[in-house]
């Protein structure tokens, strides 16, 4: 914890007016953004596959984008969309 605090406060004067934003920027520089991006794309792809299997592709993408792997569970436990069967046309 002390190491993280030292990295967050590196080059920051705590009494300065913009200290919060400097600390916030230092913490954002510690986040592995590239890895998070690729993991999120993987979650969305699997959500799209599960959604397509359940007849709700767009919903699968949306839930996976918002909740990640938890969105997969949302798609799996929702009821399947029933396909509307059209009756045959009436004779003339």
From TrEMBL:
The chain crosses the membrane at residues 30-49, 61-77. The keyword Membrane applies. The keyword Transmembrane helix applies. It comes from the Bacteria. This is Cardiolipin synthase N-terminal domain-containing protein. It comes from Rhodanobacter ginsenosidimutans. Keywords: Membrane, Transmembrane, Transmembrane helix.
